[in-house]
Amino acid sequence: MNIKNILNITTALAAALPEDGKMKRVLNILLLMVVAAPTASFAATGKIVRTYGAKETVDGIAWQYRIINGEAIVYMESKGVENKSSVVIPSRLGGCPVTTIGNVFQRHRTLASVTLPDTVTSIESSAFEECESLASVTMPDGVTNIGSRAFWKCSGLTNVTIGANVKTIGEGAFCDCTGLASVTIPNGVVRIEKNAFRGCVGLKSVTIPDSVTSIASYAFCDCKGLTSLTISPGVTNIGSYAFCSCDELTSVTIPQSVEDIGAHAFSGCDKLADVTISGRHIGKSAFAGCCALTNVTMLSGVQSIGENAFYDDRILTNVTMPEGLTSIGDNAFENCWALPRVTIPDSVETIGFCAFICCKALEELTIPDNVGYVGPAAFMSCASLTNVTVGSSVNIIGYKAFAACVKLKDVYYLGKSKPRVGDRIYLATPKDLVSHARWIPPVANMGRPATARKVWQEREIKWLPRGRGR
After folding, report:
1. Model confidence pLDDT, tens digit, residues 435-457
2. Are 108 and 17 part of one and the same domain?
3. Is residue 8 part of a domain?
4. Which long-range contacts (CB under 8 A, 24 or more apart) does 359-368 make?
5. From CA 104, how far away is CA 126, in angstroms rounded?
6. Interatomic CA distance for residues 450 and 99, integer angstroms
7. Which CATH number do you get for residue 370?
8. Cα angle 208-173-63, degrees, rounded to a multiple of 5
């Protein structure tokens, strides 16, 4: 039974009893106790919690609030804010400091200005959602939390100063704030949640401070006006699609602290031309479809390139891979048409399925000795490829690995025994390739024997008489 029902029953009983009755006096005392503390109840923890129902009028606004452990929380049922263009939130209600702003201003489209008291520590979910006229927000330094969708679709918001003690910028907090041109993220923020600034098409510059450890999925996706991005050391994870489709972004440097660059993290960044990466893992399609990308420098620390990581980057001309890199994923450089050469580090162990398929400008290739596996179609349709040297540890070369390499003339294998070779690895290559693909036993003289050569053809090795090979 709630307080309101108890109050009604007590009042009715008091009215029905004789005026001088003892029970009448008892009920009157009980009534006074209920009225004196109309919203008091005991929480399961033993702490006093005042529930919904308290009201106080300040400057023409009937603030609806509740009090929890001596702190006031304002929420949606407050009356008088709906037609206000400017609001000053009181610092105290019910004698308690206002610490939390609930969804009291949600969809109040005329609100242009709001002043938050220094007592506020949390801006809750949807607090200012769809306040289309709100132009600027300055948060007190006491604020530690910005809730999910707190300023979602505040399309008129142009400038935000985030409080110095904010730890988390919630999911979708500033999503679709299309007019937002400037935001200052203080050194102290630890996590930027999913969709936090997604669709902020007017945002020009972002600096991620040292304190941030995680940039969640879609955090800055579709920030189409973003031209400058600084990611400070300290960030360990960049989520999937975090900066996807930032059309005006031209360069980015990923610090060594980053352990994982998520799937599609920078995919579709149409003007991204130069990328420097120190992070450990480059995720699936992380830079796929970056149609202006020409230069990729991977520094020490990069250990793996995920599938489709640079897929369809058609004008990519320079790729630097570091020692320490161990795997090149499936389709990692597929359709990098302009890539003329690639130096695969000695540390690489696997080259995935279709890893360099349709790299039409690739002319020469050396697969280092540490590689044990070359995936199916790994270099298929590399139309300019003329010369391939296969390292001594390669023991598997997949189906159609060099198929449709129409200019391929020489394949040198430096191992001591023939690798396991998939079907049709030379399908649609020149007919004379068979007599020029050689298994060359390693000798002191640059690995080139003087008297005998072996032909490596599909699944069989045949001896060639002296002089028949080139």
Report:
1. 344 444 444 334 443 333 333 44
2. no
3. yes
4. 359/333, 359/334, 359/335, 360/384, 361/337, 363/387, 364/388, 365/389, 366/391, 367/391, 367/394, 368/344
5. 9
6. 86
7. 3.80.10.10
8. 135
Last residue of a domain, one of 120, 140, 173: 120
Measured distance CA(425)–CA(378) in Å, rounded:
10
Residues 45 and 96 in one domain: yes
**Would you tell me how many other CB atoms lie within 10 Å of the CB of residue 42?**
9
Residue 4's φ and ψ, nearest 5 degrees, are: -65, -45
Instruction: Give how many domains the chain has, as a whole number.
Output: 3
Q: What pLDDT shows up at residue 219? A: 98
Residue carrying the six token digits 């037609």: 83
The answer to whether 71 touches 99, Cβ cutoff 8 Å, is yes
Q: Are residues 388 and 414 in the same domain?
A: yes
Query: Could you give the 3-state DSSP secondary structure of residue 87?
Result: strand
Q: Which of 79, 100, 120 is the last residue of a domain?
A: 120
Distance CA 221, CA 303 (A): 26
- Over 80: is that where the pLDDT of 327 sits? yes
Burial class (CB in 10 A: 0-12, 13-18, 19+), 287: buried
The structure tokens listed for 8 are 């009604």
**DSSP secondary structure letter of residue 213:** -
User: 427 with 361, same domain?
Assistant: yes
Q: Are residues 356 and 440 in the same domain?
A: yes
Go through the chain and tell me how many residues it has: 470
Adjacency order of strands within the sheet including 182-184:
136-138, 159-161, 182-184
Q: Is the separation of the CB atoms in 118 and 138 below 8 Å?
A: no
Claim: this prediction has a pTM higher than 0.85: no
26 with 102, same domain?
no
Q: ∠266-351-360 over CA atoms, to 5°?
A: 70
Domain shared by 59 and 32, yes or no: no
User: Could you give the CA distance from residue 97 to residue 33 in angstroms, rounded to a whole number?
Assistant: 24
Assigned domain for 333 exists = no
DSSP H/E element including 35: helix 22-36
Q: Is residue 396 part of a domain?
A: yes
The parent domain of residue 65 ranges over: 40-120
Place of tokens 């949640």: 193
Rg (CA), the chain: 34
**What is the 8-class DSSP label of residue 85?**
S
pLDDT digits (tens, 9 = 90+) for 228-244: 999 999 999 999 999 99
Cβ atoms 223, 247 nearer than 8 A: no
pLDDT in tens, 37-83: 444 443 333 344 544 568 899 988 889 899 999 999 998 767 878 77
The distance in angstroms from the start CA to the end CA of the chain is: 98
In-domain check, residue 309: no
Identify whether residues 52 and 106 lie together within a single domain.
yes
Beta-carbon count within 10 A of 431 CB: 7
Can you tell me the distance from the alpha carbon of 346 to that of 136, in angstroms, rounded to the nearest whole number? 54
CA 23 to centroid of chain Cα atoms: 68
